[in-house]
Design goal:
By secondary structure, the protein is an alpha/beta fold. The protein contains 10 helices and 7 strands. The protein has 2 domains: 222 residues, Spore Coat Polysaccharide Biosynthesis Protein SpsA, Chain A (Alpha-Beta Complex); 87 residues.
């Protein structure tokens, strides 16, 4: 069985054209199918149109948020409600073609856990394309996954991979990375990308300012969540030793008889030493808190196991 999870937000103009094409694509797979629409608090006629579609097709299920929660939350709900052994996602704006699903399915059959679409000839604005390339380059550099397109809406997953995802905020942009970090096998294949014909993009220039902080948040969570001292210690150590070198240099000048009291470099050296120590001990405290938390979890698990054993005895 294959589940198509479709997050929608104010897509009244495209839905009636999108649904027949998606249905034809799913029928061509010769598999039992279901379509899970997740309405992300649409304010237009999206929800009434979805209800009309569901009334005619018993394989269509609808879930709806009262207010806009975001694409990440909509996808998470869709993943948890899906029943298929395979889960495909795509947007309802018809920029990604439903007919491409069969191509992704053939690739998944080679043993992958997630196949992501690669919009090789992307039909978006120049600004979006440039930032997307920059984002993909950063992600590949930090994580070494070497994909060309992390944020294509067209993706196919095994049920295990899809249900392992708990997305929030803007984390849907990092799905291949999240799966890679969990040990799932991720790849991509080129897919056709069409120009938007209906409605307007939900992401403007503000997307740039949201994505960049998210990259560094993801980097910290994936690389240093279990060892924060490695992150803060490295930065703090660099700042401290830079300040120390400046102080040694100024000390030599002072011993040679030069006045250093009014030099901005003196204040910079002091600032770097103090900030470096504070940053280092921030990481030390975070590491200590994490250690205590993990120790309490282990003790709790041990006590629970002991209680179960005594109960069975």
């Amino acid at each position: 069985m294959i589940s198509a999870v479709i997050p929608v937000f104010n897509e009244q103009e495209s839905l009636e054209k999108f649904y027949p094409r998606l249905l034809d694509a799913l029928l061509e797979l010769h598999k039992i199918y279901e379509i899970v629409f997740v309405d992300d608090g649409s304010t237009d006629l999206t929800l009434p149109i979805l209800k009309k579609i569901a009334a005619k097709d018993k394989n269509v299920r609808i879930f709806s948020f009262r207010i806009n929660q975001g694409k990440a939350e909509a996808l998470t709900l869709g993943f948890q409600k899906s029943k298929g052994e395979f889960v495909v996602t795509l947007d309802a704006d018809l920029q990604d073609r439903p007919e491409e699903i069969s191509k992704l399915l053939r690739k998944l059959d080679e043993g992958w856990d997630c196949v992501s679409g690669w919009r090789k000839n992307r039909r978006d604005s120049i600004g979006k394309i440039i930032f997307s390339k920059f984002f993909n380059l950063l992600a590949s550099t930090f994580w070494g996954t070497n994909l060309h397109d992390y944020n294509c809406g067209l993706k196919l997953y095994t049920a295990d991979a899809a249900k392992s995802l708990s997305l929030y905020g803007g984390r849907q942009r990092f799905i291949p990375l999240l799966l890679h970090e969990q040990g799932f096998r991720v790849t991509e294949i080129p897919v056709v990308h069409d120009k938007r014909k209906f409605g307007k993009s939900k992401y403007g220039i503000s997307k740039v300012f949201k994505d960049l902080p998210d990259i560094f948040t993801m980097l910290f969570l994936s690389k240093y969540a279990k060892k924060p001292l490695h992150f803060f210690g490295s930065i703090g150590g660099l700042m401290f030793f830079s300040g120390l070198l400046i102080s040694i240099y100024l000390t030599i000048l002072r011993l040679q008889g030069e006045a250093i009291g009014r030099r901005p470099l003196l204040f910079l050296g002091i600032l770097l030493i103090v900030a470096g120590l504070q940053t280092f001990f921030t990481g030390f405290l975070a590491d200590l808190i994490l250690h205590v938390s993990e120790k309490e979890k282990l003790q709790g698990s041990s006590e629970e196991s002991s209680m179960k054993y005594r109960t069975k005895s």
